[in-house]
Amino acid sequence: MVKVSVLGAAGGIGQPLSLLLKANPLVTELALFDIVNTPGVAADLSHINTPATVKGYVGNEQLEAALTGSHIIVIPAGVPRKPGMTRDDLFNINAGIVKNLATGAAKWAPKAFICVISNPVNSTVPIVAEVLKQHGVFDPKRLFGVTTLDIVRASTFVAEAKGGKAPNTIVPVLGGHSGVTIVPVLSATGHTFSQEELDALTKRIQYGGDEVVKAKDGAGSATLSMAFAGARFANSLLEASVTKKTGITECTYVKSDVVPGVEYFATVVEFGVNGVHKVHPLPTLSAHEQKLLDAAIPELKNNIAKGIEFVNKA
Ligand SMILES: NC(=O)C1=CN([C@@H]2O[C@H](COP(=O)(O)OP(=O)(O)OC[C@H]3O[C@@H](n4cnc5c(N)ncnc54)[C@H](O)[C@@H]3O)[C@@H](O)[C@H]2O)C=CC1
Ligand SMILES: O=C([O-])CC(=O)C(=O)O
Predict the structure, then answer these.
(1) From the alpha carbon of 97, which atom of ligand 1 is closest?
(2) Residue 232 annotated as binding?
């Protein structure tokens, strides 16, 4: 049995992500949790002739049933940005939502892999970790901030600019998931870039989310590309943990000591049956990338401290 629980399943990300997970033959049970509308989403998806059974759960009293027996919990619950907002502006609402869901995970699915999509990821991942610690069930190998959309965007943008096939264009993206904390390692692509190209591509990757927020003009942020990225991430975890394939890597935001003093950091991680098998060290950075990393560190540290403090305050 491979149960995947999606928390926030009725939302802009939740629905297409649930569709893609329903299409994944490795999933045998899909639990769709939200505070509204999951019975309808579940009924709709349940007609698709793939192996997963689908059930909708609504409201806190059904969180236990949604989580019990879960192999992977994916969390896209919370509010998205509107134009003019930063991801950190979402903290006040989303921190509480994520804390509540993490408490459920700690109680009812303490061994599950937890994949956090809700923003601000730089802070919501430490929030989940602190809640799990309070319940004595934190396993850093099993908690992930999903930064896959940055990787997906980076390969699209680089292939657009330099030619080549986007799926074959691999760009590690390190650090965190907001503005200057996003550190694309363009030097790893094998392409050569002028300084102008480097600056333009770096900025586009760092602020790709803003492009979508602006284009949606008040109707939210990236949902479909995020669903694609989230489904890719979940599939990588399933391939490593269920089919036991080796050598599967994703860039993801995990507890790490690759950058001293930065407790959570996105870098290349190899997955194994128990989640994180190996956190890769930092790749060789160009002088340009080292500067980006130096600029990312203070903000990342602040975002992490803010999440930790939220859970541990009185
Ligand atoms: N990690 C990443 O790369 C990305 C993260 N995001 C983030 O994902 C989150 C969700 O975005 P959208 O799906 O566009 O928002 P949305 O508003 O369309 O959907 C959010 C869903 O969460 C549900 N929800 C609210 N409170 C809840 C609770 N206490 N328990 C369970 N569900 C609850 C809502 O009912 C809604 O269905 C946002 O925080 C957004 O910033 C968005 C894109 C990329
Ligand atoms: O920009 C946002 O608020 C949503 C997000 O995280 C992204 O698209 O990368």
Answers:
(1) 29
(2) no
DSSP letters along the chain, please?
Answer: --EEEEETTTSTTHHHHHHHHHT-TT--EEEEEESS-HHHHHHHHTTS-SS-EEEEEESGGGHHHHHTTEEEEEE--SPPP-TT--GGGGHHHHHHHHHHHHHHHHHH-TTSEEEE-SS-HHHHHHHHHHHHHHTT---GGGEEE--HHHHHHHHHHHHHHH-S-GGG----EEE-SSGGGEEE-GGGGS----HHHHHHHHHHHHTHHHHHHHHHTTS-S--HHHHHHHHHHHHHHHHHHTS--SS-EEEEEEE--SSTT-SEEEEEEEEETTEEEEEPPPPP--HHHHHHHHHHHHHHHHHHHHHHHHHH--
**CATH code for 148-303?**
3.90.110.10
Q: Answer yes or no: is the C-beta of 16 below 6 A from any ligand 1 atom.
A: no
Atom of ligand 1 nearest to the CA of 149: 3
- For the chain, domain boundaries: 3-147, 148-303
Predicted TM-score of the model (pTM):
0.98
Question: Which residues does a 6 A CB cutoff place in the pocket of ligand 2?
Answer: 80-81, 87, 119, 149, 209, 212-213, 221-222
**Per CATH, is 3-147 categorized as 3.40.50.720?**
yes
- Residue of 34, 90, 92 to mutate, ligand 1, most atoms within 8 A of C-beta: 34
ipTM, two decimals, is: 0.99
Give me the tens of pLDDT residue by residue for the chain, a chain 314 residues long: 999 999 999 999 999 999 999 999 999 999 999 999 999 999 999 999 999 999 999 999 999 999 999 999 999 999 999 999 999 999 999 999 999 999 999 999 999 999 999 999 999 999 999 999 999 999 999 999 999 999 999 999 999 999 989 989 999 999 999 999 999 999 999 999 999 999 999 999 999 999 999 999 999 999 999 999 999 999 999 999 999 999 999 999 999 999 999 999 999 999 999 999 999 999 999 999 999 999 999 999 999 999 999 999 85
241 lines ligand 1 (CB under 6 A): no
Active-site positions read: 177
